[in-house]
Amino acid sequence: LRAQYEALAARNLQAAEDWYRARCARLHERAARSQEAVRASRREAGECRRQLQARLVEMESLRGAHQSLERQLQELEERHNAEAAGLQDTIGQLEDDLRNTKNEMARHLREYQDLLNVKMALDIEIAAYRKLLEGEENLFNMGSGGLPSLSSLPSPTYSFQPRSFSSST
């Protein structure tokens, strides 16, 4: 009986050892696969970390570029505003110059009108004196018909010396 138990125990022990070895082999195989999966996961996690770091560096770079562009935009706006203010000042000065020039032209036009009125009055006065002189000359020539020596005198010519007028308007 004892031999049967020992044989049965040896078979059971052998079966248990075979089962244990098979089980251990499967567990080792699973552990190896799991280790490979863990290594792959670690590699993937490492790659994700590298990508994350690269994205963070890129983000910081873009943030710096963004801030630089914002500063440039602000500087451009300030420069544009300064130029616009300068141009507004120039426009104001040009408008003042234009207004002054128009006033000066109006003053010159009034002076010209005054001078033209004086000239016309002088022309009328000269024409009146000319008529008077011609009439006197005709009377003189008619009245001295008996004096041949006077008729041989050359006819008088008149010259006009224009006066210069200045206007202080």
From TrEMBL:
Residue limits of the IF rod domain?
Answer: 1-140
Instruction: Identify the InterPro entries for this entry.
Output: IF_conserved (IPR018039), IF_rod_dom (IPR039008), Intermediate_filament (IPR050405)
Record flagged with keyword DNA repair: no
What GO biological process terms are annotated to this protein in UniProt? intermediate filament organization
Quote any Pfam family the record assigns: Filament
* Keyword list, A-Z: Coiled coil, Intermediate filament
Which family is annotated?
Answer: Belongs to the intermediate filament family.
Query: What is the annotated signal peptide range for this record?
Result: none
Any single GO CC term annotated in Swiss-Prot or TrEMBL for this entry: cytoplasm
Is Coiled coil one of the keywords? yes
Q: Which SUPFAM superfamilies match?
A: Intermediate filament protein, coiled coil region
SMART domains linked: Filament
Q: What is this protein called?
A: AINX protein
Entry's Gene Ontology molecular function annotations: structural constituent of postsynaptic intermediate filament cytoskeleton
State the coiled-coil residue ranges: 59-118
Kindly give the PANTHER family that the UniProt entry links to this protein. ALPHA-INTERNEXIN, GLIAL FIBRILLARY ACIDIC PROTEIN
